């Protein structure tokens, strides 16, 4: 009789060791701490990406100006780019040299008169019931507004550090843009390289359109306010106009913020003067925003106004002033990426709409 080996016995599973309450608490704390660290790293990395985008805009400006010089003069690429970069810095230095003393005097004048201007504005507001409610609200929330403004204008490395990094990155991108473009395309699979070249070209055209419209709008709004406020005899005209011109880079909100100091100064003269100054600001902003800018920005992607405001609020919360300034070009880039990588792909298999033969014009 054959001996039948008994079936091997399965090893008895070891009983699961249940975590104690203290261990569960420490595990939870560790997971939360890890998530917080990841969020903080992502936020810092996002600010770095914004600085790279700002540097890309600087390089786009220099190359766009170089293209114009090259077309007009028929010179080589290197002389055109040298004039583009050197000429831009020379113009800025000349403006600061000729207008620096006047700007400094007007800034001192504005700083000296600002406390009295604010007190005069408070007195004007206190004369009406609505103004009293506004003053009560501002007094109750002054500390909260100060903290919000402080956070709003804070950045990751400080304002001067960010400007330094952005400027030098922009110069490096200007000197050898193909190195960074081809370096990015190296990591793209061969079958996707043509698609990403098309995406980069679309983004380049969109950023150029935004830059042209924004820069010309800043110059025009500055000139119009200098003329308009000079007619009304408002003090510190040049500073107010330059302030409004710089804030023009922030759509929607920049125009409202720029109007505040001008109207406050006008209130020290009379209420009618303040109304006239407010009208000057609104008319200038309307002409530039609704007539001039759309004509120049004909190549930029058409963004819905509500979507622009939402992106500004989100970017301002995440990255402060730099995020608000770059919210529109960043939104344009996101829309282009979504269009090229998603929308066009899902519409590839869709049948094209039938065209009525009667509506098609006949050609000879």
From TrEMBL:
A GO BP entry: transmembrane transport
Domain of life: Bacteria
Transmembrane segments: 21-42, 48-69, 81-100, 152-175, 215-243, 249-267, 274-297, 309-338
GO CC, one annotated term: membrane
Keyword Oxidoreductase attributed: no
Mode of membrane association: Multi-pass membrane protein
Location(s), subcellular: Membrane
Keywords: Membrane, Transmembrane, Transmembrane helix
Family membership: Belongs to the autoinducer-2 exporter (AI-2E) (TC 2.A.86) family.
Name used for this protein in its record: AI-2E family transporter
Provenance organism: Mucilaginibacter psychrotolerans
């Amino acid at each position: 009789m054959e001996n039948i080996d008994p079936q091997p016995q399965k090893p008895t599973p070891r009983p699961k060791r249940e975590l104690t309450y203290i261990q569960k608490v420490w595990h939870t704390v560790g997971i939360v701490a890890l998530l917080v660290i990841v969020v903080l790293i992502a936020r810092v990395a996002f600010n770095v990406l914004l600085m790279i985008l700002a540097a890309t805009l600087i390089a786009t400006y220099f190359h766009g100006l170089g293209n114009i010089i090259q077309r007009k003069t028929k010179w080589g690429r290197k002389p055109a780019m040298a004039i583009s970069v050197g000429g831009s810095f020379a113009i800025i230095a000349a403006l600061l040299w000729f207008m620096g003393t006047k700007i400094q005097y007007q800034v001192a004048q504005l700083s000296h008169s600002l406390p009295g201007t604010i007190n005069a504005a408070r007195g004007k507001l206190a004369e009406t019931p609505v103004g009293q409610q506004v003053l009560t609200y501002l007094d109750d929330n002054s500390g909260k507004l100060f903290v919000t403004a402080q956070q709003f204008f804070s950045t990751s490395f400080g304002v001067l550090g960010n400007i330094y990094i952005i400027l030098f990155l922009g110069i490096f991108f200007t000197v050898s843009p193909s190195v960074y473009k081809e370096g990015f395309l190296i990591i793209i699979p061969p079958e996707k390289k043509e698609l990403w070249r098309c995406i980069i070209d679309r983004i380049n055209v969109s950023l150029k359109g935004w830059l042209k419209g924004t820069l010309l709008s800043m110059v025009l709004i500055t000139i119009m306010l200098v003329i308009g406020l000079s007619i009304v005899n408002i003090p510190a005209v040049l500073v107010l106009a330059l302030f409004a011109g710089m804030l023009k880079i922030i759509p929607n909100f920049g125009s409202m913020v720029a109007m505040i100091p001008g109207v406050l100064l006008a209130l020290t003269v009379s209420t009618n003067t303040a109304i006239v100054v407010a009208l000057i600001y609104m008319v200038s902003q309307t002409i530039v925003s609704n007539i001039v800018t759309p004509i120049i920005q004909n190549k930029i992607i058409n963004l819905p106004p509500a979507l622009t405001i939402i992106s500004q609020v989100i970017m301002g919360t995440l990255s402060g002033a730099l995020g608000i300034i770059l919210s529109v070009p960043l939104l344009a880039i996101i829309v282009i990426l979504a269009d090229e990588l998603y929308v066009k792909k899902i519409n590839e298999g869709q049948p094209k709409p039938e065209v009525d033969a009667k509506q098609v014009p006949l050609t000879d």
